[in-house]
Each structure stands twice: as structure tokens, then as C-alpha cells.
Amino acid sequence: MTAIVLALIAGAVVGLALGGLGGGGSMLAVPALIYLLGFTPAHAGTAALLIVAATSLTGLLAHARAGRVRWRTGLLFAAAGLPLAAATGALSDHLPAPLLTTAFAVLAAFAAWRMLASARKPKDAARNRPDDAAGDRPAEGAPARSAAAGAGLGAVTGLLGVGGGFLAVPALVSVLAFTMAEAVGTSLLVISANSLAALVPRLGATGGLDWAVIAPFTAAALLGAWDGKRLADRFSGRTLQTAFAVALLAVAALMLVDALR
């Protein structure tokens, strides 16, 4: 019963992060599964991908209804990372747990730093936006940078079991001149595609999963994603980013200490 309660609480927090920020849910899901629910790093990565894929699809529907998803660019961005997501997903089960934990801690600290740096930047109301009829034409030179970012995102997704929204959102804003709202909505499309691609090879390699824990975790995350979208409507992106970055720094410190013991 205690495990189910913890799974429900953790799932709600993960859903809020995904729905409100367009990413970051797996950065909380993996440590929650390891330290609260007793999963190994490999099993936690697999379970997190499953949870994040389902939750991202739910959040994607909410943002799509609000017109915040730019489908063509999002699909192109995701496509660049799908092969690497599948390849590194198969590799992850063969790596030692301390290495995965350390890599995850470093990535969480990096994500927190990026979010804090982004939150401190002044708003640019005059940001240039694509102005073609579809509203989906990348800026000059952006396709190559977008493909590189998408490929790197796919590799990280498969290896560590993270959706990668914390990387997708700033890439969509800085490389493709998306607004923050569009970047959040479109990143959920990217996360869904990458998570599903990375999940398939992991399911066969990782073995059985504890569905008695994963099911309530996922259900709570699905509900939380809808509330996260409401948070995005009520609070500024800076406020949400700063709060999440502080939480990520605490998670990174905890995992790094554990890996080095």
C-alpha cells in the first residue's frame, strides 16, 4: 500500500512537470522509481520511458487543442533522433548501474543550469518568428542545427530513459524561434516519439516490470499532465523553470552522492 501511495504522489508531480514545462518529467520519474520505489537504474529507465510516453501523449492532446503544437517541425525534429534512441535504448541494459546513475546526475545538473540561465534572460518581445503560411518554416541554417539537436536528444533518451524535453524546449526556442508556449507543446510531440522508440528495445532486454507500481504511477501522471497545462496558463515560464531547476539540482546532488559512495 505504501508503494502505491508513493507511486501516486510521484506520478502526479511528474505529470505536472510534463504538462507545465513540456519536459522534465523523466528527470523526476527516474530518481523517484529508484529511491522511493526500489527500482534498479535500468528498470527505472524503462519504466520512466513508458510513463513519460503515455503522459506526453496526454499533454500533447491538451496543448494541441490550444493550438500550441507545430506538427511538421516537431516531427522532423523527432525523426532525427529515432534511430539513436532505439540504438542506445538497447545498449543501456549492458552498462553498470553506477555509470548510469552518475550520467543521470550530471545530466540533471546540466538541465537545471540551462533552465536557470534561461529564466534569467530578459524577454524578447520582438523575437523574429517564421511567417510562412503554415507558420512552420525554420530560420536560415536551422535545419542542420535542428537535426543535430534532435539526434543528440534521441541518444540521451535511449541511454538514460529521459524524454529530453528539457533539451528540446530551449532548442526549439533558440534554433527555430518558437515561442515558449509553442516549444512546450511541440516538445511533447518530440518526447512521445523518442520515448516510444527507446522503449521498444528496452522492453525485451530489461525483463519483467512491476506493473502494480507502474500502473498507478502512470495514472497519476496522466491526470497531473492536464493540471500542468493549467499551471502553464496561470504562471510565467520563468517561475515554473526556476522552481523545477531547484528541484533538479537537489535530485542531481542526491544521485551523485549515491553513485560515488
What features would you describe in this structure?
- Helix 3 packs antiparallel against helix 8 and helix 6 runs parallel beside helix 8.
- The protein has helices at residues 2-21, 25-36, 41-65, 71-92, 97-120, 142-160, 165-174, 180-206, 211-234, 237-260.
- The longest helix is centred in the C-terminal third of the chain and has 27 residues, at 180-206.
- The protein starts with a helix and ends with a helix.
- It contains ten helices and no strands.
- It is mainly alpha-helical and 261 residues long.
Summarize the structure.
The protein has helices spanning 2-21, 25-36, 41-65, 71-92, 97-120, 142-160, 165-174, 180-206, 211-234, 237-260. It is mainly α and 261 residues long.
Which residue ranges are poorly predicted, with pLDDT under 50 across at least 5 consecutive positions? 124-135
The residue fraction in helices comes out at: over 70%
Quaternary class:
single chain
Shape: globular
Strand percentage: under 5%
> What's the main sheet like?
none
Radius of gyration: 17 Å
Secondary structure tally, helices: 10
Distance between the termini: 30 Å
Instruction: Output mean pLDDT.
Output: 77
SSE layout and pairing:
Blueprint: H1 2-21, H2 25-36, H3 41-65, H4 71-92, H5 97-120, H6 142-160, H7 165-174, H8 180-206, H9 211-234, H10 237-260
Helix pairs in contact: 1-2, 1-3, 1-9, 2-3, 3-8, 3-9, 4-6, 4-8, 5-10, 6-7, 6-8, 7-8
